[in-house]
């Protein structure tokens, strides 16, 4: 069962997918550091590994934007904790434009 490619049609000309992927790269800089991760972020990494793989997620197709929307408060918290202004700016942009 393939993932539906572009379900965010109301965001025409906004790169929600690209920005979401970029934010996950920024997040990984923190949660891949053993001194900054915890059980929550380790579980989050498992969910991130299921992006675009419905066969590994009981037929559910998730993407980075879904994870951002679902865990937006946790994302704000980690970026604030580590004073990652660039990631906070992008997260705010994604929230305003795509969520």
Account of the 3D structure:
- With 99 residues, the chain is mainly alpha-helical.
- It has one domain (15-98).
- Helix content is 59%, strand content 0%.
- It contains five helices and no strands.
- The radius of gyration is 14 Å and the shape is flat.
Short description:
This protein is mainly α. It is 59% helix and 0% strand.
**What about the largest sheet?**
none
Give the N-to-C terminal Cα separation. 25 Å
What is the H/E string?
HHHHH
Number of strands: 0
- Strand % is under 5%
**Category from helices, strands and their pairing:** mainly alpha
Helix content: 55-70%
Mean pLDDT score:
90
Global Rg: 14 Å
Helical element count? Answer: 5
Low-confidence stretches: none
Query: How many domains is the backbone divided into?
Result: 1
Shape: flat
List the helices and strands and how they pair.
Blueprint: H1 16-31, H2 39-49, H3 64-70, H4 72-81, H5 85-98
Helix pairs in contact: 1-5, 4-5
Identify the notable features of this structure and list them briefly.
flat; 99 residues; mainly alpha; 59% helix; single chain
